[in-house]
């Protein structure tokens, strides 16, 4: 196996499993740990992975997107804390948009059940999770269902959203950067997110620290469009400060 083949194999494993460890890769590929570290460095320079202590995880891009099933297995405690902190910002909102994705799904689970709420969502998982809540009315956007994320897209969804005035939107993204804003790989998903931004008075981004600095294909919002960004302490405080200078309150939990 030459260098290019080995790096393709590493990337394939990372995308399949959600992350890779240097020690395990060295054993599996019968190479030195330092060779694996060089491979991960090269993949990171090409924007394909983000390195961590002892390993790496794949970066979502225009040509690659993790499925909802994979997202439910990664950094779950951090995502749960983010969801709880995001819901603390709900205030007196009566209508709420909840985006597709696992962290927004956790936001839905954390919503108060003792007050009337109307939830608008493109996520089948969110709608299913809230369907039995007595005081929550759920409006599921119509459209084509994307198999990997179990969410609706296309003009049916955006037309429905365009008719609403929503108090608060909890929005996710595949990447958030100070230069390029919030991005996602699929143009159809981007259209739904962009319309949710237009239809909502207040916007909160809820996402894990690994989203920061990542850039995908379709831009749907600027950092300054949000009143708050909720993430975990994996985002360095200095970087959080840089994002806050663009407008939003940055909350690390």
Automatic annotation (TrEMBL):
This is Lactose phosphotransferase system repressor. Gene3D superfamilies: Winged helix-like DNA-binding domain superfamily/Winged helix DNA-binding domain. SMART domains: DeoRC (SM01134), HTH_DEOR (SM00420). SUPFAM superfamilies: NagB/RpiA/CoA transferase-like, Winged helix' DNA-binding domain. InterPro entries: Carb_Metab_HTH_regulators (IPR050313), DeoR-like_C (IPR014036), DeoR_HTH (IPR001034), NagB/RpiA_transferase-like (IPR037171), WH-like_DNA-bd_sf (IPR036388), WH_DNA-bd_sf (IPR036390). One of its GO terms (molecular function) is DNA binding. The keyword Coiled coil does not apply. Residues 3-58 form the HTH deoR-type domain. The keyword Cell inner membrane does not apply. Keywords: DNA-binding, Repressor, Transcription, Transcription regulation. Repressor of the lactose catabolism operon. Galactose-6-phosphate is the inducer.
